[in-house]
Amino acid sequence: MDPDPVEMANEVQCKVILHWNCRGFVEFPEAIRHHGGHVQEIYLKWNKLKTLPSWITELFNLTNLYIYGNRIEWLPEELGGMSQLTVLDLSANKLKLIPTCIGNLINLKSLFLNDNFIERLPIDLSKLNNLEILSVSGNQIFALPEWIGSLPRLKELYVDKNHLKELPNRLTTAPELSMISVCSNRLKYLPLNGFLSAPCIQFDKNDYLNYLSYPLLFQLISKMNVPEAHEKICFAVGCFKTHYDTNVLNTNIKLYIKMKELYEKDDFIIELPRQLLKIHEVHENVTCSLWELALRKVYTERYKHTLDISIPSKDDDIPNVTILYKSLLKNTKQDFMSSTSYTSYNLLTNGPTSICVNSQCQQPIFTEAWIIIGISYNALSVIMIALCCSRSCATAFAAHSDTISLHWHSID
């Protein structure tokens, strides 16, 4: 039976929040247009809507719009005129593309696009400077853009059940992040640098993720209720296996880790982030490339970025990791690029691959590093990787760190 238009009009007129879920609507109700100028929240979940009307911009007081579980394939450009919106839920629809007009919702705080068919995030979303929650789980996203780490107020990021192989390095400098959830993806590594905001990171069921960086490991452990016996610390179900994805060909550096010398576990392979182009063992006394040295110089002139790892005095304590990051200069993009190439500009703005883990150093590391691989006494189930800027720093760290070093060699 079709809804009575008089009853609908009366209901709209007397309510500020409309709960019209599961009503079987195939079109956005006209009664809202004629009588709902005062309405602030609309719930139209589990209906049969295929799009939104262009007149939706007439709802000047609407701040929360929930269209979960419909059949929406496209959205009108007029939606971008609703600058007063703070919450938009378009989950469980049939969207293949995120319309660029959403980037005009300058007051949006929460954007939910779960369970659609989205493959990428358009750069227009980088204009959402008030966005606090972005949830795009259950889509077909292969990569997140680096600009997502520049959203100034982003607190929660949910990208579960997609096809991610890595996370943007710029996320490590996001100032407000408190939660990142990337379960059930295809991650091969997490960023090697520590995170400025030390967020809780959930990354269960990433089969090919088999190691963590030294600073990130202890940032994550600090978020847990650490048991008395640190060797029992374990997290991320379905990760830290010894197998490696041999079906994917790429140019990332891969390392063969020798485990049988110390444990009964099989030897295995880890893959390093694509930013790293050259690596060295602790004993290698070589000089960094001029490009790497230039990147470090330019970066330290513009940013103060430190990684403070305090080594505990007791054997049963865990290291404390603190990150500091701030811009020292107000350079425009044009000024920054005038002295660097486009590739160098991207490396500098996305942040270093790591800060040298030698606490007396604090040099940023971009494309070249000395690498120490081991197992921490605090988390014996997790392979750990530490990056140093030079042989001297690597030697000093290896001498004082509370880890069991493992032998490795680079492979093609």
User: Would you identify the regions where 5 or more consecutive residues have pLDDT less than 50?
Assistant: 228-232
List the quaternary state of the chains.
Answer: single chain
Helix percent reads 10-25%
Rg calculated over all Cα atoms: 25 Å
Tell me the number of strands.
Answer: 21
Describe the fold and architecture:
Helices cover 15% and strands 21% of the residues. Mean pLDDT is 90; it is low at 228-232. The N and C termini lie far apart (68 Å). It is elongated, with a radius of gyration of 25 Å. It is of the alpha/beta class and 412 residues long. 38% of the residues are buried.
Quick tags:
7 helices, 21% strand, 5-stranded mixed sheet, alpha/beta, elongated
Brief overview, please?
With 412 residues, this protein is of the alpha/beta class. 15% of the residues lie in helices and 21% in strands. The strands form 5 sheets. It has a 9-stranded parallel beta sheet, with no helix packed on it. Strands 10, 13, 18, 19 and 20 form a 5-stranded mixed beta sheet that branches.
